[in-house]
Amino acid sequence: MYPYYYFRYPRPGQYPPPHGSWHYPANYQGSYHPVYFYRTFPGVDPEMFMTSAKKMEVLMRDASTLLVNMAESKKFSHELMSAAQQSKISEVEKMIKSTGISRVPSVSYTPDGLTLHFESEKEDNVKCCDLTLKLRWM
């Protein structure tokens, strides 16, 4: 138990339950001090937030283009699944790049499906946003 709260509350079973209104035992009445937590928040500057939203738009557009190709082309989906299951990473990346997207995601796969991780460009060694798509085929 946190030591600060040890003296504030009586232990269960140590005192009889109160009748009517709550009365602290005499040895606890003087030691109860309410704790108030005041949090100060920094000023709001929406510039970084807006920049992240604009970069996320690009990632979403690329992801949408890729998903449309996967959803509408049975041949493309079959070839992509086959290459992924055979661990042909370069072929999977080449197929994804052939869809015409500007940012190629990092690809990982399991026997159950495919995971595509889109990342934005780093500015000043700070990554503002990323998008992860997990697609199942089993």
Alpha-carbon Rg, integer? 29 Å
Residue-averaged pLDDT, rounded?
80
- Unreliable segments of 5+ consecutive residues: none
Count of individual beta strands: 5
What is the quaternary state of this protein? single chain
Going by helix content, strand content and strand pairing, the class is alpha+beta
How much helix is in the residues? 25-40%
Q: How far apart are the first and last residues' alpha carbons, in Å?
A: 48 Å
Q: What is the overall shape?
A: elongated
Report a brief summary of the structure.
The chain is α+β, with helices and mostly antiparallel strands.
Structural write-up:
The protein is an alpha+beta fold and 138 residues long. Helices cover 37% and strands 16% of the residues. It contains 4 helices and 5 strands; from the N terminus they run ααααβββββ. It has helices at residues 26-29, 47-72, 74-85, 89-97; strands spanning 106-109, 113-119, 122-123, 126-127, 130-136. It has a 3-stranded antiparallel beta sheet, covered by helices on one side. A two-stranded antiparallel ribbon has the order 3-4. A hairpin with a 3-residue loop joins strand 1 (106-109) and strand 2 (113-119). Helix 3 runs antiparallel to helix 4. The model has no long low-confidence stretch (mean pLDDT 80).
